[in-house]
Design a protein that fits this description.
The protein has 14 helices and 18 strands. The chain has about 425 residues and is an alpha/beta fold. It has 2 domains: about 200 residues, no CATH class; about 210 residues, Rossmann fold (3-Layer(aba) Sandwich). The strands form 4 sheets. The chain has a 9-stranded mixed beta sheet with strand order 12-11-10-9-13-14-1-15-18, with helices on both faces. Strand 9, helix 10 and strand 10 form a beta-alpha-beta unit.
């Protein structure tokens, strides 16, 4: 099969970036008058999630140092629901992969799946919270604020979700997701989060927003009474920074890698236009006929939840699967659909060929193809000729043509995105640009 010529483009988007992480964290905490809120010796639990937040280790270490300076005795609680195969050692391993350990942070990590019930939801379900957080003198809630992958609302993925699902561990996460199937995320997450906020001694929260290049764009600290307002404002900001595909209709989306460090669903559903969750409406755009996933990130530890959103994948992905971790995640999140295995083929080339063969009456040279590294890093990506013409008419781009060989016929584990430290952006590593 003759693959169509591909072109490399770079999106021009607003991408604010914080240069000195530690200073910003210190400045934000200084606004909260912690000296009057912390009693010497207070045991302070700090939430640490599984998401691959940029500079999470620096942010967390600075928080710890500030709390210690005020006489607090901070410790870390893994707050990641059922991740890490729903086990205490598994969750500790995930933190270690993020450079969060007792050695690097200088405080204990209390990793346990034991929970205590602190409330009952309006629908009659128990509200569970990690026992170490529930018995702490104070609790600090930290998370990235971003659009959720399964619903839209004024509160999506952030501080409230960290309390409702992250601190609930496997048992609490399961109870929350059961309710979302019947009553919707937009009602359940804020309610459960508010119940926990009311009953736990929450000291403050830290919301983090990242730009399209997965860099820290904003860090905001807030007191518990301001959680809802602050999170809503940060979510609106996050949506202006988020990566999106600039085309409403795509025949084939090629994704070099998916993974838990990229999105809770492996691929950001806001990018690919597929949610696949009972009771939630599918996005109108983009409409993508076929999605091909070529690889799984190492930090996923074999959990390819979200692979069910793809149509084709490679044997390379199948060989890396930890099916038990996937099953635990999928069942707890009430999304068995996202753990379904798509058609898998031996090589990148075979998977993309199959996608081209199943888009209907569209000749390969007329196929609307987009090739990205992952759904987080989309500042630079590749498009086929039909989309190039559309982009020239409707968008403002910096546009380069890839030099010969300039088509997907090189797609045999080599037509992947690499990293160019000189330009600090992702580029194709098999061919230079012709400007």
């Amino acid at each position: 099969m003759d693959f169509p010529p591909m072109y490399c483009i770079r999106q021009k988007v607003e991408a604010p970036k914080i240069e000195n992480i530690e200073n910003i964290v210190i400045q934000e905490l200084a606004r909260l008058d912690l000296a009057s809120r912390i009693t010497h010796g207070d045991r302070i639990a700090i939430t640490a999630g599984s998401r691959g937040i940029h500079h999470i280790d620096k942010i967390l270490k600075t928080l710890i140092d500030v709390l210690k300076s005020h006489g607090g005795a901070p410790f870390i609680v893994p707050a990641m629901g059922s991740h890490g195969n729903g086990t205490a050692p598994g969750q500790r391993d995930i933190l270690n992969s993020l450079n969060i350990s007792e050695a690097t942070m200088g405080v204990p990590i209390h990793s346990s799946m034991e929970v205590v019930q602190i409330a009952t939801s309006s629908h009659g379900f128990p509200v569970w919270v990690d026992k170490h957080a529930a018995t702490a003198d104070k609790v600090v809630v930290m998370n990235r604020i971003k659009p959720h992958t399964e619903f839209e609302g004024p509160i999506e993925s952030g501080l409230m979700k960290m309390m409702a699902i992250g601190l609930g561990k496997h048992k609490g996460c399961f109870e929350v997701h059961k309710q979302t199937v019947n009553f919707g995320y937009s009602r359940v997450i804020p309610e459960i989060g508010a119940l926990i906020l009311d009953r736990l001694p929450v000291l403050f929260g830290v919301g983090i927003v990242e730009n399209i290049y997965d860099e820290t764009a904003c860090i905001t600290a807030c007191l518990p009474e301001n959680f809802l307002h602050t999170e809503s404002a940060l979510l609106a900001k996050a949506k202006t920074y988020m990566a999106r595909l600039p085309f409403d209709r795509i025949d084939i989306l090629i994704v070099d890698e998916m993974g838990k460090n990229i999105s809770g669903t492996g691929m950001d559903t806001n990018v690919i236009g597929r949610i696949m969750f009972i009771g939630e409406r599918e996005p109108d755009i983009p409409k993508i006929t076929r999605i091909v996933v070529l690889d799984l990130t190492k930090p996923s530890h074999g959990n390819a939840i979200g692979i069910g959103l793809a149509d084709f994948t490679t044997q390379r992905v199948i060989d890396q699967l930890n099916t038990q971790a996937m099953a635990t995640n999928a069942i707890t999140a009430m999304t068995p659909e996202k753990a379904r295995i798509p058609v898998s083929l031996a090589t990148d080339r075979a998977a993309i060929t199959a996608a081209l063969q199943t888009i209907g009456a569209v000749p390969p040279d007329e196929a609307r193809i987009v090739h990205i590294k992952n759904t987080l890093e989309m500042g630079t990506f590749h498009i086929s000729q039909p989309l190039k013409e559309e982009a020239k008419k409707t968008m403002t781009w910096s546009l380069w043509q890839i030099s010969a060989p300039s088509s997907l016929r090189w797609m045999e584990d080599s037509y992947r995105f690499g990293y160019n430290p000189l330009h600090k952006e992702n580029i194709c590593k098999t061919a230079p640009y012709l400007i």
